[in-house]
Amino acid sequence: MVIRRERRADEAAVDAVTTAAFGAPGGGEPVETRLLRDLRADPGWIPALSLVADGADGAVAGHVVCTRGAVGGAPALGLGPISVAPERQRAGIGSALMHAVVAAAEASGERLVCLLGDPAYYGRFGFVAAADLGVAAPDPAWGAYFQARALAPDVPRGPFAYAAPFGRL
């Protein structure tokens, strides 16, 4: 497996993996695929933090992205969506993508990354309830499922806002 930056030529394959990973009732396109397309067109898109995992066959097996968000007006990252082709799940691809995107974010000087997801899964990557770091979820009902990981000692505090396309879901 090779993890690398997404290229324009990967977009259709990434969208197909995202669609397969999230599925939709009746076989339609899931909201995550539409979100990904909208994020690519948004000023919050950060090309260096859109990563794909290529399988041994060279096909896109997974994808993760972080986009520009804000905490109380200070720059932060929103992670997601992350997807792995169903036939490739439970083989470590998602974990490798998570480690890679967090490392890339930290190396680029980012201070905080937030996500909405299962604490039991994301806790192993250093994520904690965002409230524990003084970061408020866009929706208070998310509770402990809204998580954050500090990438620097001086993380911003306050309400989190995702890139604009998340608000149109």
Task: Report on the architecture of this protein.
With 169 residues, the protein is of the alpha+beta class. The chain has one domain: Gcn5-related N-acetyltransferase (GNAT) (Aminopeptidase, 3-Layer(aba) Sandwich). The chain contains five helices and nine strands. The chain has helices at residues 11-22, 31-40, 93-107, 119-122, 164-167, and strands at residues 2-5, 45-54, 60-71, 74-84, 112-116, 128-129, 135-136, 146-150, 158-161. Strands 1, 2, 3, 4, 5, 6, 7, 8 and 9 form a nine-stranded mixed sheet that branches. A hairpin with a 5-residue loop joins strand 2 (45-54) and strand 3 (60-71). Helix 1 (11-22) packs antiparallel against helix 2. The termini are far apart. The mean pLDDT is 96.
Give me the count of strands.
9
CATH fold annotation:
Aminopeptidase
Structural class comes to: alpha+beta
User: In percent, how much strand structure appears in the residues?
Assistant: 25-35%
Query: What is the CA–CA distance across the termini?
Result: 32 Å
- Mean residue pLDDT: 96
According to CATH, the homologous superfamily is Gcn5-related N-acetyltransferase (GNAT)
- Major sheet: size, sense and barrel closure? 9 strands, mixed
